[in-house]
Amino acid sequence: MRLSRYFLPVLKETPADAQIVSHRLMLRAGMIRQQAAGIYSWLPLGYKVLRRIEQIVHEEQQRAGHIPVLMPTLQSADLWRESGRYDGYGEEMLRMQDRHGRDMLFSPTAEEMFTDTFRAYVKSYKDLPLTIYQIQWKFRDEIRPRFGVMRGREFLMKDGYNFDLTKEAALHAYNRHLVSYLRTYERMGLQAIPMRAESGPIGGDDTHEFLVLAETGESGVFYDSEITELRFGERAIDYDSVEQCQAVLEEFTSRYARTDDTHEQSVFEAQVPEARRREARGIEVGQIFYFGTKYSEPLGATVSDGEGNQVPVHMGSHGIGVSRLLGALIEANHDENGIIWPEGVTPFHCGIVNLRQGDAATDAACEDLYKAITAKGLDPLYDDRDERAGAKFATMDLIGLPWRITVGPRGLKSGVVELTSRRSGESEELAPETVVDRLAEIYALG
Questions:
Q1: Per-residue pLDDT tens for 292-316?
Q2: CATH superfamily of 3-339
Q3: CA 152 – CA 1 distance, rounded (Å)
Q4: Residues of the chain with CATH 3.30.930.10
């Protein structure tokens, strides 16, 4: 994409009402625009990152054997009355009526709708286990929406639901989700820790929330420094194996503790050497639940068990805050100049800065680089504006592309361009064709 043809409404000044780093930088980088309290338009740069995050979530869900669907954002209140949650959910639920006077609601979560779909079609234990999921917009009417996309009223969420014959099978689904989530966050360049949590209005006996380590996090956590060396993406995990999922889970969960839980802290201290203990803050970006028959019993989601009995299925739900993740990524990856995107979620793989727009040799070199990088299957952003070099560098730093290629007359006379890492700030001079190969190697392309 050529920046002269792109819609990137960056701001020079920091908006006064933006309280946290991610909100400030998303507004300044032209990623979002507020339409109402807690409700945002996603502008091209922000939408591009949102779609990259969504794609990673889809890929890891399907790798774990989960099946995508798409449910409506509007639900009938009758389903919620069946489950007993309609009156008790609270004012966060946006209630409305259609033109015929039927009570409706804008989905804050989807347990009832998924359970209703299941009970309409699945009748036998032979059709289990089953896990279906969606990535869909939700609405919760927060009394004080704040912090941009971190605590908005409208948000994009992945919610999945497993249906199993027994509690043991449902707990395996729970562990499978936990492992798949760790892989998901890892691919985004995030260190996530699954902490035991409260279930809230969703209910259930077992639940973990996933915290991304960041200085601005709302939750405290002790962790083993070696936890950052665990790499699930490098392992061929058999998600159907109860034993393997459990062993990965135990390897990870023995290495952290809540700071506000004295029992967890004492266990942690007994297991982790003092030299490896660290304390940090975390931002919640996902949660998983096992809630047994809480929804299947009142909604009649039963199957035959093979012995002539109709039994309610055991269920769990599993959420990832897709739009919230974007804010968390920025909270965990920024400096005083702007965003620093991890390679896995960057909106563009690199930026090309032309230091002398209008110079025939420099223009030609940039055009050749742009075409060669694109031919490798990468997506570069070419700053071809007639702007001073300082303004171009400031824009690139603000929007946070991981790699910048700087092309100028002086370097071209020596046959080189400059490749700069946004994260480290380190630069090296390379031949143009070598830069293309280096980027292809970084992004694991042939």
A1: 998 899 999 999 998 989 999 999 9
A2: Bira Bifunctional Protein; Domain 2 (3.30.930.10)
A3: 30
A4: 3-339
| Secondary structure (H, E, C), the chain | CEHHHCCCCCCCCCCCCCCCHHHHHHHHCCCEEEEECCEEEECHHHHHHHHHHHHHHHHHHHHCCCEECCCCCEEEHHHHHHHCCCCCCCCCCEEEECCCCCEEEECCCCHHHHHHHHHHHCCEHHHCCEEEEEEEEEECCCCCCECHHHECCEEEEEEEEEEECCHHHHHHHHHHHHHHHHHHHHHCCCCEEEEECCCHHHCCCEEEEEEEECCCCCEEEEEEHHHHHCCHHHCCCCCCCHHHHHHHHHHHHCCEEECCCHHHHHHHHHHCCHHHEEEEEEEEEEEEEEEECCCHHHHCCEEECCCCCEEECEEEEEEEEHHHHHHHHHHHCEECCEECCCCCCCCCCEEEEECCCCCHHHHHHHHHHHHHHHHCCCCEEEECCCCCHHHHHHHHHHHCCCEEEEECHHHHHCCCEEEEECCCCCEEEECHHHHHHHHHHHCCCC
User: What residue spans in the chain does CATH classification 3.40.50.800 cover?
Assistant: 350-442
Task: Report the C-alpha gap between 431 and 418 in whole angstroms.
Answer: 9
Chain centre to alpha carbon of residue 51: 10
Closest CA to 131 of 360, 262, 316: 316
pTM exceeding the 0.90 threshold for the entire prediction: yes
pLDDT tens across 117-133, in order? 999 999 999 999 999 99
Chain-centroid distance, C-alpha 430? 34
User: How many other CB atoms are found less than 10 A from the CB of residue 392?
Assistant: 22
CATH number of 350-442: 3.40.50.800
